[in-house]
Amino acid sequence: MSDRVTVSVIKADVGSVGGHARPHPLMMQKCVERLKDGVRAGTVDDFYVTRVGDDINLYLTHTRGENNKDVHGLCWDAFMDATKVAKEMKLYAAGQDLLTDAFSGNIRGAGPGAAEMEFKERGAEPIVFFMADKTEPSSYSFPLCKVFMDPFTTTGLVIDPRAHEGFKFEIVDVIDSKKVIMSTPEETYDILTLLGDTTRYAIKRIWSKSDDIGIGAVVSTEKLNISAGKYVGKDDPVCICRAQSGLPAVGEHLQPYMFPALVAGWMRGSHYGAWYPCSVADSDPVFFDGPPRICAVGMHVSNGKFQGLEDPNSPVGVHEPLDYFAGSCWDEARRSAVKASMYMRRHGPFMPAVLGPEEMEYPTRPAVLSKLKERMEKLE
What's the mean pLDDT when you consider all of the chain? Predict the structure, then answer.
């Protein structure tokens, strides 16, 4: 038996009730049933099905490593089962994120987003799962930089000997499909030079420089509009973060979300709005299809399986994670997010409320310019 465990989070929007709001409970149940089959078949060891906004998120533990075709195929089948239900009910955007008719061995590039990490379990293995709706992968760059690079956020960078060594960042160019590994603290300013351009660069992985710790965070960086060649929905990324004992503490992972940063996405994937930290139950996007939601739930990985607040003898797949953003502590951040989002909405169709032309998901400008071509005159 492997002494390493793989944690996978694979997500997709395959239909929802009330526009881009919430998947029907029967869709979620179909995913549960399919993943139970995966446990019985030995494909995965444990699972948890949840959602953020209209996206279904499948949490999995197994020992097959990253990008395993059997694990990805299981999730694809779960999303297909949910899509069938959505189509029968004539729900909105049924099967939206499934860009192909048949699974080809890897979920990447086929529409769903995936974040996966493999590691050796420590004595205690707390993990924070972040789930976002109505935004893009680079939205995590700001909070992850605060957590893994800023000692005013993460005191552990100063006082924890292993965190003090710094971290390695895998940064991806989502346009040209390139990546580079960079290191903190020595390349901090160079890293920020890239990540400040959220239209192109995003964090994929972060590792500890301590070999006994390994991976610290991973983000789903699939750009749905690039995969599909057109707008079919925003990427709605997920992020997995290990915590404590040489890595940032849970509270350090959460602190940056007290500031409702502006992120790209929101209505029609074409606006800037403030991230709204909320509970899973409160993640329905109700104001202009937003504001962009961010949820955070916590569980441990214990002997290759998830452990939350539920009885440890609960049936497989039955878990009760800690919902970090559910409490009143985050009320001020939510008020600030709504206030900032209302300010942005007052700009209407003008920048900076809407994205630049290179990011606009509904590109009507070329058609308008083509129509006006014969009427355009050169300036004297």
Answer: 94
